[in-house]
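Lab channel / #folding
Pinned by the channel admin:
"Please post every new chain as: sequence first, then the structure tokens as a reply. Keep commentary short and put observations after the output so the thread stays searchable."

First post following the new format, from NK:
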Amino acid sequence: MPKVGIIYNDIKPVACRIADELHHKLVTSGCEVHITSSFGGILGYSQSERPVCHTRIEQVVPPGFDSSIDFGIVLGGDGTVLAACRQLAVCGIPLLTVNTGHMGFLTETYVNQLPQVLERLLAGEYEVEERSMLTVRVWREETLLWEALCLNEMVIHREPLTSMCHFEIVIGQHAAVDIAADGVIVSTPTGSTAYSLSAGGPVVTPGVPVLQLVPICPHSLASRALVFSDTEPVTIFPATPNQMVMVVDGNGGCYILPEDCVSIEKSLYTARFIRLQPPEFFRILREKLGWGLPHIAKPTSVELP
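Reply from TO:
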């Protein structure tokens, strides 16, 4: 009897409706089903007067979910997928991501295709693609203030109405570098098509074992995106007296004070995505971002009226 997990965005009516219908269909088919909302994977924000506000990575797994679940079905948009990966990466559960949102860059299929896809899932007709994740931690001296898993990127940026910031950054055993900018992004290959891309970073295909550091609006022509091995940890020290804000995967984070430091390293856990056909990254770039579309040739001559 297959064990199936359903993770859905409980603030979207269509996701709630599909989750109920899917739950009923799977139970009727003889499956053991566990269902939860993606809310438990939403990081939230700590408060400046109470910065010690975090849940340990292993504690965000929903009740009833463990490594015995054969696969999970995620109903929502990219934000729901990111939250579900934080919730279930610890268990190693492969996830089928179903788009009920807008862009759906991380989703594999659509709601109208779910009946046919479900048959393939129950028959085991799929592949599993693994994506690297980051472990992000905030330290004050030797005290752990905050930690989370991250699939896309970690961002530290200045608060509104404050001046440009300085960041002292150490990558692996290399010498520390100073970057003056509005903020910095540390991104996985999966996150290279998200905020990092908007900030001028390169697109990295998912299987390449690298991370990238991208300054946001740097105050130097020499400060450009840097790609480096994902075996090298990153430590960021605020080299400015101003309070800053850290955001992970665009949905939560905490304040960073001058005495704090942020450590980022490749996680032991991976996000595991169910693929119904061999992964084709360039196709997704073309469909979602318009990359590599053929150009229409200009006419060789123009006749004036």
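NK: The chain is about 15% helix and 35% strand.
TO: also worth noting, The longest strand covers residues 260-275.
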